[in-house]
Amino acid sequence: MFILLTVAIAPGLALFSFFYLRNQMATEPRRTLFHTFIYGAILTFPILFLQYVFQEEQIFSNPILENVVFTGVVEEFFKWLILMIAIYHHVEFDDPYDGVLYGVAISLGFATVENILYLLSYGVNTAFLRALMPVSSHALFGVVMGYYLGKSKFSKKEQVNEYIVVALCAPIILHNAYNLIFFLQDHWSYLMIPFMLFLWWFGLRKVKQAHNHLIQHLYAQKKI
Question: Where does this one sit in the cell (predicted)?
Fold first, then answer.
C-alpha cells in the first residue's frame, strides 16, 4: 500500500516542483499553495460522485456528450470556480506567475487523488502511463487556466472579464480534445503523442509568458 501511494503521489509532486522552481523572481507562500492543492484533492470526490450519478441515471443519450464533453466541462469548471472563490482575490495572489502556480496546485491536487483511486483499482502497472498522460495533462490544463487568471488580475479593467472567461474556456477545450482522443479507442495512440507534445509546448509557452509578465510587473513596481 505504501509503495502504491508513493507511486501515485510522486508524479504530481514532481510536476509541481518543476513549475514551482521555474519561478526564480519571487517565492510564493508554500502554505497557500498547499491549501490550494488540498482544495483540488477534496474537489475530486464531489466531481466523481456527480459523474457517477449522471452515468447511473443515463442523463446523456450521446456517449460523446457523457464521456468527452461533460467530464471535461465539470472538472475544469469546478477547479476554475474554486480558484475564483478562494484564490483570485487572495492577498498572496500578487503577481502574474502566481496564477500558474495556483492553477497547477489545484489541478495536481485533483489529479493526485484521482491517480491514487485509479491505481488502487487497477494496480501500479498503469502508473507510468498515467504519469505521462492524465497527471501531466491536468497540470498543463492548470497552467493554462492559471496563466489567464494571472492575465486577468494584472491587466487593464476592460480586459479582466475577457481573460476570466478564457481561463475557463481554454482548459475546457483542451480537456475535451484530450478526452475525445481517448474516445477514439483503437486509434487514440496515433493522436495522443502529437497532442501531448503540443500541450507541453503550449503550456511551457504560457509559463514563459507568465514569467515575462512577472518581470514587467516587478519592474513597474520598481522591485527590480
Answer: Cell membrane
Phi, psi of 88 (to 5 degrees): -55, -40
Q: List pLDDT tens digits, range 87-146.
A: 999 988 988 899 999 999 999 999 999 998 888 888 777 777 777 788 999 999 999 999
Distance CA 94, CA 107 (A): 20
Q: Can you tell me whether residue 45 is helix, strand or coil?
A: helix
Q: DSSP assignment, residue 182?
A: H
The boundaries of the domain holding residue 95 are 2-220
Q: Total domain count for the chain?
A: 1
In eight-state DSSP terms, residue 61 is S
Q: Who contacts 9 (Cβ-Cβ below 8 Å, separation ≥6)?
A: 112, 115, 116
- Residue 222, Ramachandran bin (φ over 0: left; ψ between -120 and 50: alpha; else beta): left
pLDDT tens digits for 141-175? Answer: 999 999 999 999 988 888 899 999 999 999 999 99
Tell me 171's DSSP state. Answer: H
